[in-house]
Write a structure and sequence with these properties.
2 copies of one chain form a homodimer.
Chain A (H helix, E strand, L loop, with lengths): L2 E6 L7 H14 L6 E4 L2 H6 L3 E3 L5 H8 L18 H13 L2 E8 L1 H17 L4 E6 L15 H20 L5 E7 L6 H5 L8 E3 L7 H15 L3 E5 L16 E2 L5 E2 L3 H11 L5 E6 L2 H4 L7 H17 L8 E7 L1 H5 L5 E7 H4 L20 H7 L11 E2 L2 E2 L9
Subcellular location (chains A, B): Cytoplasm
Family (chains A, B): Belongs to the phosphofructokinase type A (PFKA) family. PPi-dependent PFK group II subfamily. Clade 'B2' sub-subfamily.
Keywords (chains A, B): Cytoplasm, Glycolysis, Kinase, Magnesium, Metal-binding, Transferase
Chain lengths: 404, 404
């Protein structure tokens, strides 16, 4: 029997470790592989041969791993470029040295592209090596799935903090605006999810070109109507010409995505400068939402774990490579108002490098939020809470493998 | 029998409504007062006669009120100035009109000063009127108590988000600093509490004059030693000359306190400009910590509720006025490593207008965090979680009375 390798990439989430736990646990239930190695820091550390043996992780540690936020193996921003045969060859050498046949890669769009590229390359140059993707992203922007693991928990945190900060805001009489900024570079799923609370007066998404005059007119209306205006903005909100609202300078990360931040501060200043109200409060969720240890969605942690199981189980088929596992909503159940899912697998190429935007038909005009269809989509995802193992008043977490 | 009035003032907390619930419930258990009126928006709405009858709030609503963050009666920043006889007379007139003998005021230092001023004034001009304080403040800076209701829950949130964002930060290999900004204008209790997580490399408190060179030297050391540096800064951190670190302009609120924000961004830029690392991440907890609906401390919610009960029960004594109820740690129990408390009442003047800073002897030199004594003080406060009543995946909350 050969061994397998599992690694994590991209931005951490609240449940990316649940998928990792699923892979490890599946191999304990059915030892298809002799050893399960964790590649530290995604492709980056794996290429340096930094592996951690996860095969015999104790049951209790697996339980704690499921509730540990962030990437317990460490993550990376390093992207394997297509045509970079040296890196591909090096990875295969490292796999050979440890008798690894199969690599599971847990990540977002870019990582699924890596899975596709590696599987295609291996077909010709290393046909015994297999590459399998497990999706995650708080952005919820992968195309062929109903939703991405990580998103439901991030949405649950966003809704909780949105409602709590709305109540805080609503306790005051003084005229001021409140602007909550939520992660979301190219897709506004996370920002839109906060409409579940019923507290959001105006919602600014990347999917709609921002029009300053139209926006300010709506802010003025809200203050005229109800004396308050609670605004949620996606970090990726932009003008018609593509310029981001965020005030800060746009630096670049390794993936040539703009590093965003400051859209909320921009809106606040805009409202003050327009003379609508003299004050504003900005709350930026930033990383507090994406990988929380206090607010996993039960649906999310279960699905992420099950996707880890599913990827491992499907890999017992020696022809299974270049595939990604995913979750689809059961249409018949949804029509009856129930939430149920189907697990499936599809070609990594269909997951990679596309961005599923928040549907235009779910966006109400004039920044008034989202339709009932959108709320019906979000509601079941944030349902339920796992029973957390606590330690001194805080959720217990596992020491990251990259810090041992 | 006469009636009573209860109002809330100052910044909301996660448990200020638990104290309100305690007052309402106490009167259902022993109807010392015919009616329990809630004054909307503290003194401000009360002076306008905006009262809400809370006497018969259903048991289920009382349970939900206990877990509802922010101030369900609304709050204010309006301060009754000593010598403002017109306002005092007006308040007494409003109390007379509703046959109200006793006012319970839930608030921080300034509100306890209001209780003291009103009680003193009433002694001469309206001897039948009584004013009783119930403390709250996430800043934890009231003098005669061991800790203030609201602080333990805020500390629990701060610790949870600190640990989660540390794990997020620790997943990366790239050289960058992380700076978490926490509320705390004049006292660093909340920032210091995050040291419970064991994740904090450097801690910047208002109690210690900030020295840029010394700080940067410590940042450099951490990167040299461990390749990372997780920093927590209190919003009120300042230089020796009293100037705040916060980059933003200092506006003034009604209480002549500077409005702060931006200390973390200042530190991040400082580190980048010094060439220590090329990047930094800022997370500002801001209002997400002070009145959360997802992370009450069980100790906190119970104590806040019990203080509401205690204030009402003690008010059965007709001479009880100008007093504030509070919690002291049981010294004998603490010596045995157990957490227990004693409830007491003391003159409002002792609670008002003093700031209890974080003890100098608990601060380690060179921004290295806090002593074991400090950790032993914090630990029991964040223990335990109430069993929340959930509604569609979010903690159920009561519609604020000021929004009905």
């Amino acid at each position: 029997m050969a061994n397998c390798l599992v690694a994590q990439s991209g931005g951490p989430t609240a449940v990316i470790n649940a998928s990792l736990a699923g892979v490890i646990r599946a191999n304990q239930l059915n030892p298809v592989y002799d050893r399960v190695f964790g590649g530290l820091h995604g492709i980056e550390g794996t290429l340096e041969g930094k592996l951690y043996d996860l095969t015999d992780l104790p049951s209790r540690d697996i339980d704690v791993l499921k509730q540990t936020p962030s990437s317990a193996l460490g993550t990376c921003r390093y992207k394997l470029k297509r045509g970079n045969d040296a890196d591909y060859r090096r990875l295969v050498d490292i796999m050979d040295a440890r008798d690894i046949s199969t690599m599971f890669y847990i990540g977002g769009n870019d990582s699924m592209d890596t899975v596709d590229a590696l599987a295609s390359w291996a077909q010709e140059h290393a046909p015994s090596k297999r590459f399998i993707g497990i999706p995650k992203t708080v952005d919820n922007d992968l195309v062929p799935v109903d939703h991405c693991p990580g998103f439901p928990s991030a949405a649950k945190v966003a809704c909780q903090i949105a409602h709590a900060t709305y109540l805080d805001y609503a306790a005051y009489t003084r005229p001021e605006a409140f602007v909550l900024e939520v992660m979301g570079r190219d897709a506004g799923w996370l920002a839109a999810s906060t409409c579940v609370t019923g507290d959001v007066d105006l919602l600014i998404l990347p999917e709609t070109s921002f029009n300053k005059d139209a926006f300010l007119a709506e802010v003025q209306k809200k203050f005229d109507q109800k004396g308050e205006c609670y605004i949620v903005v996606s970090e990726g909100a932009r003008y018609a010409d593509g310029a981001y609202l965020s005030a800060g300078e746009a630096a670049n990360d390794g993936f040539a995505h703009a590093v965003l931040g400051g859209a909320a501060a921009t809106l606040k200043q805009m409202i003050i400068d327009a003379g609508i109200v003299p004050r504003g409060v900005v709350q930026d969720l930033s990383r507090a939402a994406r990988s929380s240890n206090f607010s996993q969605s039960l649906v999310d942690v279960n699905e992420a774990y099950d996707l880890g199981l599913s990827a491992h189980m499907r890999s017992a088929d020696p022809t299974f490579t270049g595939q990604v596992v995913g979750v689809r909503r059961n249409v018949a159940a949804a029509a009856e108002g129930r939430y149920d899912t189907e697990f499936f697998a599809g070609p990594a190429s269909e997951f990679a490098n596309f961005v599923k935007q928040f549907p235009a038909e779910w966006i109400l005009p004039d920044y008034q939020g989202v339709t009932e269809e959108a709320i019906a989509y979000f509601r079941p995802l944030i349902e339920g809470e796992p029973k957390l193992i606590m330690d001194g008043g805080l959720p217990a977490t596992l020491t990251p493998f990259n810090k041992r």
